[in-house]
Amino acid sequence: MDIQNHYYGHSTALARYVGEPTVRHINGLVQHGWTVASPTLVHFSDFATLPRTARRLVWSHHSRAWDPGSDEFPTTAIGSPWLYLSALTQGVPVKPLGKSVAFPVHSTHLVKIEDANAGFAEELARREGPAVVCVHPEDLADPATVGLWREHGHDVVSAGDRRDPNFLGRILYLARAANRVVSNQLSTAVVYAAAEGTPTEIYGPPVAVGSLGTSVSTRTQEVWPEFFDASAAGQRESIALAELGIDNMREAAELRELLGWEKRRVRPWFDYWGGAPLRKAGAVLGIVKRPDGAQDAGSHNSPLAFLKHPLSHLPSPLPKLPETDRLPAPVTDERSASLRNT
Questions:
Q1: DSSP of 226-262
Q2: What DSSP letter does each residue of 153-176 carry, written as one string?
Q3: pLDDT tens digits, residue range 221-235?
Q4: C-alpha span between 36 and 297 (Å, rounded)
Q5: For 247, phi and psi rounded to 5 degrees?
Q6: 200 has which bridge partners?
Q7: What residues are paired with 331 via a beta bridge?
Q8: Chain centroid offset of residue 270 CA
Q9: Which of 231, 312, 239 is nearest to 277 (CA)?
Q10: Is the per-residue pLDDT at 16 higher than 80?
Q11: 31, 2 in Cβ contact below 8 A?
Q12: Is the torsion defined by CA of 210, 212, 213, 216 positive or negative?
């Protein structure tokens, strides 16, 4: 019922798993990233109320981040789209990169992270040698940012725009092809890599993220210390799988029903194009109150900040199921420039 359901190729992975020929509107909200607090406060905070039959579909009820039993909002755990795509591609060969892959903390349209990665680029080169650095697509389009990484000998790639249906496949490709995955903050990509059994490491100074400051970095070290303790590296895979909802995965028929795909409905289409954008606009303007405790790194921004990139928050036609490889190679800055010029 909202554009976030189709971020990062998640609806694509779910459609493929249940055997749908196309991506469809989902009757509810799907968690679109690993969180350090309740997804209802991180990803669903603009939607304190939902249509009667809609569900809040989260990845796991076994995450250390939150207690579903005491959460203000009812949720249904279905397992992360990553796990479904991973299951679908178990036999797909991936050529090793022979390098570490880094997923640095990145800026967004609304939250700018100044100078967070300058020191990390240098430390990455010292610890890993030349690495593959996967950056946000906005950063890929910024010559200064790309130049920072290249100055230290790193290759720069991206998983694509967040509405790109191949996004998740590219991250999975990198996680499987990497010697190991590193970052300057425990993040979704690091949890993904750990779940695949790829070695991981977090290092560098804490990163301040918008109005949340360094609270995210601090919380991850307190709640998931195994990702920062080299002696606990062997525990990371099982922890990551629990965070992603390995025990909450559903069979295809049940998953289809929970997504609202067992039959055609008009309401999810209406909510996607009309209801959800109006609810989000109301939350941004302060007309609709967000739940107490809502965690939004951009909460300090004026509502006018959203008008700088208005189309990035609006719905668009649903993504098409790609006919290409399910684990495509990442986007390079040359390919990105070519796409921008077409």
A1: GGT-GGGGGGHHHHHHHHHTGGG---HHHHHHHHT-S
A2: T-EEEE---TT-TTHHHHHHHHHH
A3: 999 999 999 999 999
A4: 13
A5: -85, -5
A6: 181
A7: 158
A8: 25
A9: 312
A10: yes
A11: no
A12: negative
